[in-house]
Design a protein that fits this description.
The chain is α/β, with parallel strands linked by helices. It contains eleven helices and eleven strands. Helix 2 crosses helix 3. It binds S-adenosylmethionine (SAM).
């Protein structure tokens, strides 16, 4: 059994040198070097026996090793060919690996049968947090996710939709998941150290999750690009949002001058439908 591969800056540097690899900033390659955080991520996943776990960006295989050791059936998606080859060498057929973009394949090779519980545990590359999340929410929903994200992304994803700092993805996520807990993680837990601190976010699927159809997602994203404009201006002549805004205003007694960033979650959810499991 391969345990965690690189849990100190020195071991990580040595491994990178052996692989002839320079961490690529564009791909968010900040590798975990703190054993406590790796253990905590696995513990927070509360895995069931033989559970399928999707890991985005296995990198040097630190978290992957801990998940395999915990008995998970890991499906990993890694975009970097050199790191993907390393994961293949390290785990062989103990990990189902897809070399590719997790935004295109948010679950990698995992294809959970209808209703089959599975989880996601990942130290997400910061650049794909929102697009990967949106892609994930349009497919089969994991029962639980343990995600390392930049603190600012965690704040945005879990912010109240009517509080001024949420985004469109916050609305989609909060309609399907509730945040169970969050844990601060110092930038010193990664090599190379990123410029900002991170947060370990635990998300649990709601009992009755809601899903936004494609057209509704596009529409919500569109109004959030002009979040400070009055909604009544933005939705004029919009076949989907026009009638939605009329109904939402009446039901929730909303001011006609409201902006997208001040609309409550329940009002947005009138654009969503129950997720069928
Ligand atoms: N899991 C490792 C760890 O915790 O040490 C590495 C995490 S590192 C923050 C992010 C990883 O995601 C890198 O290995 C990077 O190459 C990979 N990655 C970046 N963009 C990706 C994408 N679009 N699809 C799949 N993997 C990606």
């Amino acid at each position: 059994m391969n345990g965690p591969a690189a849990l100190s800056p020195a071991a990580t540097r040595a491994l990178l040198e052996r692989l002839g690899h320079h961490p690529r900033k564009k791909l968010g390659q900040n590798f975990l070097i703190d054993g406590n955080i790796v253990r905590k991520s696995v513990a927070l996943a509360a895995l069931r026996a033989d559970e399928t776990v999707v890991e985005i960006g296995p990198g040097l295989g630190t978290l992957t090793g801990a998940l395999v050791a915990a008995g998970a059936r890991v499906h990993a998606v890694e975009i970097d060919p050199r790191l993907a080859a390393h994961i293949g060498d390290m785990f062989g057929d103990r990990v189902e690996l897809l070399q590719g973009d997790a935004v295109d394949r948010p679950l990698g090779t995992a294809a959970p049968a209808r209703g089959e519980p599975f989880s996601v545990v990942a130290n997400l590359p910061y650049a794909i947090t929102s697009p990967w999340m949106e892609a994930l929410l349009s497919g089969p929903l994991p029962r639980r996710m343990v995600l390392m994200v930049q603190k600012e992304a965690a704040d945005r994803l879990t912010a109240r939709p009517d509080g001024g700092s949420a985004g469109a993805v916050s609305i989609f996520l909060q309609s399907a998941y509730h945040g169970e807990s969050r844990h601060a993680v110092s930038r010193a837990c990664f090599y190379p150290a990123p410029a900002v601190d991170s947060t370990l976010l635990v998300l649990v699927r709601r009992a009755a999750p809601l899903r936004f159809p494609r057209q509704a997602r596009d529409a919500v994203r569109r109004v959030f690009t002009q979040r400070r404009k009055q909604l009544q201006t933005l939705v004029k002549n919009d076949a989907l949002l026009g009638p939605w805004w009329e109904g939402a205003r009446e039901t929730y007694d909303l001011s006609p001058t409201l902006r997208a960033e001040a609309v409550p979650l329940a009002a947005w959810q009138r654009l969503a439908s129950p997720y069928e499991t």
